[in-house]
Amino acid sequence: MTVVTAANLGLVTLSAPAGNNAARLEALAGEAGRALEGAPAEEIAKWATDTFGARFCVTSSMADAVVAHIFSRVAPGVDVVFLDTGLHFPETLKVRDTVAATMNVNVRSIRPQMTVGQQDGEYGPRLFARSPDECCFLRKVEPLERALADYDAWATGLRRDESPTRADTPVVAYDPKRGKVKVNPIAAWTQEDVDRYIAQWDVPVNELFQKGYSSIGCWPCTRRTKAGEDPRAGRWAMFEKTECGLHV
Ligand code: SF4
Fold this sequence. Notes:
Layout: H1 19-36, H2 41-52, E1 56-59, H3 66-74, E2 78-83, H4 90-102, E3 105-110, H5 116-123, H6 127-130, H7 132-148, E4 153-155, E5 172-175, E6 180-183, H8 191-201
Parallel strand pairs: 1-2, 1-4, 2-3, 4-6
Antiparallel strand pairs: 5-6
Helix pairs in contact: 2-3
Bound molecules: iron/sulfur cluster (SF4).
The site of iron/sulfur cluster (SF4) has 13 residues, from helix 7.
């Protein structure tokens, strides 16, 4: 399989994805997405780290550490960005701390510009219950934009089987909103694939999965799910909202 790289596209500088360089990044992502469809996650991860080097990071919600673990094997020391909203379950922070202590990655916890108390003062308490889009923007979207300024490409743990809104997730794509390449190495995995990998490598997993949760975000916006429910039905259950804005 011939996989296009930044070098063979003549993409020397990836730090300013605008104009012609944006077009090249888009072409790079499109070609890689087609070439790597069906490839093992490790191969997709290797392509990403070989192509972007230090201008690449993994993002993790710390529901589990599967993607961070894959990259730790392929590119030891890789940056792993975690959005520390200030509203995470203690179990989620425990996964983050375990990853930092036991895996060969560089965990970067990115905080919002305001503490929860400062946000309460500015916008009123419990913004998440009144305007979750606004809360997610302040505590997730803006911090991610700030963190990604250091990179040209980022990896996520998005999977096609998680929800209908994620059913067409490509393994590599250009994110025109951010001008970056988005890498989804386990897009084609099923929950069974994830479980098998976790068992094989003894990967840290959020303890909330054993307590009835099937998708984990901030504690105010996450509830347990019932048997047969969509895995993401427990997120923002009081609203139509299904995504926090990081992946739209
Ligand atoms: S998930 Fe809920 S608490 Fe977390 S940032 Fe979004 S609205 Fe706020």
